[in-house]
Design brief:
12 strands; 9 helices; alpha/beta; 287 residues
Length: 287
Amino acid sequence: MPRFVLTIQSHVAFGFVGNSAAVFPLQLRGFTPIVINTVEFSNHTGHPQTRGQVFTAEMIEEVIEGVRELGVLPKCEGLLSGYLGDAGIGKVVLHLAEEIKRANPNAIWLCDPVMGDTDSGVFVHPGIPEFMKAHFLNGLADITTPNQFELELLLGRPVVSRQDAVEAARNLFIEKGCKVVFVTSLLTKDVPQGFIETLAVTTDKAWTVRTPFISQKAVPNGQGDVFAASSFGIYLNTHSAKAALEGAVSTLYGLVSAAPDNDLDLPLIDAQKEILTPSTIFKAEEI
């Protein structure tokens, strides 16, 4: 019997970001993704030129209605949401999450709060960070995966240490009902030079995985999307935040390591063995 998950985020014709990055890792882990795209671009915005458009909320609602008529929404084990496009689409995703959770109280929603990064700043339309904080991350989402920049954006101040990041994750999300927070791309002052850390935070536990920082001429896009899909798939199979942290970090490290130095996209197909059997397994340390 198919194991359905619904993934709603951006899509590109060329390269691997958004749904283009999420679908394959989910399929390899045994899931049948129901794919709804919030935008259709020729390629991600890391390239010099991009063409395409953000879909309207009405068009996305029409697609959802068609999926609803197929009767598969109550069969979804989970919902993965990412890049929205605008706050109007956020409302559609919020209602979709509420519907799936009403039909299946055991369904898990992973909300990747895609808003920006250290090197690019905020790259979403105005209103999305406020909408995320007010509606998505107030307890309805079970898992969220902010990078350090996004955590600081929602927090309203810099994160100064690993423990500060843990406390911020608990104050912003866990205390409101979120089960797991993964904080990615952590480069606080207590992270040794030449390394980068990823955290998993729950109500009473926190772990970190430290990996060497891979310096490249071009940073491949889609890393957060692959991490979100990988951690989601592992968590749905294990219900372990620690296992999801270790597996997703190991997968991402393997893919980034295999990327040519000047490539703007991850080698998702050429290095697909890194998704299920990473070359290097990184173990989590409890904080």
